[in-house]
Structures are given as C-alpha cells and as structure tokens.
Design a protein that fits this description.
Layout (H helix, E strand, L loop, with lengths): L6 E2 L2 E2 L4 H13 L8 H7 L6 H11 L2 E11 L4 E6 L7 E5 L1 H6 L5 E9 L2 E11 L4 H15 L6 H15 E2 L7
Antiparallel strand pairs: 1-2, 3-4, 3-6, 4-5, 6-7, 7-8
Length: 179
C-alpha cells in the first residue's frame, strides 16, 4: 500500500494544519491494509442514529472522489456545478458549500470527495485545489499512474495519494476563514 505522504520514519510529518485534515479524510474513507474503510466499520456497527444522521452516513458510504473543474457558481444558493474530468462523459455534479461557493472561480480545479445527500452533494471537507493551468499536468500524471498500475481506472486510494502529492507541487494554498 502506498504511503499517502505523511509518514516519515514512523512519525507523522505535517507541512500545514490542512495536512492533518487530509490524513483524517484518508483514514476515514480509504481502505486500510485490512481491506476495510473506517466509515464502513462504523456503518456495520449498527449504532442507533437519528434519521438525518443515518442519511449523512449513507452519503458517506456512497462517497465519490475525483478531479473536478468548477463550472457554474450559484452564489445565492451556495452551489457549484462540478465537471468530472476523469469521467469520459464529463458528468456534472452539484456541490453545496457555503464557503467554497463564495470564494471559488470558474475553471478552478479541485480534487475532492463528494458525499451525496438527497439531490445534491456536500464535500468531506478536504479539497486539493489547482490553478486551471495545471489541468494537463494533472491529467497526464493520472494517465501515467494508470499505465504504471496497468489499470483502466485508478482506485480511489491511489487517486487520493496522487492528488495529495501533486497538491504539494502545483496545488493552491487554501486559507480558512470564518463566515
């Protein structure tokens, strides 16, 4: 299993506060060396949840991560249209995100994890952002990784690790602000 880029000599090394969030996201949603995701283990524990919590958990189980391009931005409804760059049909998704909808620009690239809730999506909270000029570099790196692994499509874990590593090279810095 590939190291997500945090582990050095059996110690976790973070370059920023966002790095710990990225590790937490990785640990919750990607398969461990035992072949299970933590979110699946929680789901299978049958802990009693309120209806809204159950709906959120179901969305977390059915999460989808990819490299997206920001299409339309609806400031009033705090929604963005995301174009899936790794889907040959360029499928679009709606993302509801108060902060991101107010700060994103059309054409911006984001590797993020979508959590479907009803007729929209929310993110898991971690996104790797890239300038539009990095699009070809990222798509080429993903194609090269698929060739190396001899797969038509990368597993979400491999894609996450690659996006994290590339974010350190050509990623945009994210700044947290309270709204």
């Amino acid at each position: 299993r590939e190291n997500p880029g945090f582990l050095e000599w059996k110690n976790f090394v973070f370059e920023s506060e966002d790095e710990s969030d990225a590790l937490l996201d990785f640990m919750i949603y990607e398969k461990t060396k035992y072949g299970k995701r933590l979110v699946d283990e929680f789901y299978e524990s049958n802990i009693e949840l309120a209806a809204i919590e159950e709906e959120r958990l179901q969305g977390q189980i059915n999460n989808y991560s990819s490299l997206f391009e920001i299409g339309n931005i609806d400031l009033l409804n705090c929604e963005l249209t995301l174009i899936d760059l790794l889907n040959k049909d360029n499928q679009t998704y709606r993302l509801m995100d108060l902060g991101f909808s107010q700060s994103a620009t059309q054409g911006l690239l984001a590797f993020t994890r979508l959590i479907p809730i009803r007729d929209t999506n929310i993110s898991s909270g971690v996104s790797f952002l890239f300038h539009p000029l990095a699009k070809q570099k990222l798509l080429s790196a993903i194609s090269l990784e698929k060739l190396k692994k001899r797969e038509k499509k990368l597993h979400s874990t491999d894609l996450y690790v690659l996006a994290h590593k590339k974010s350190k090279i050509y990623g945009l810095e994210t700044i947290r602000q309270s709204l």
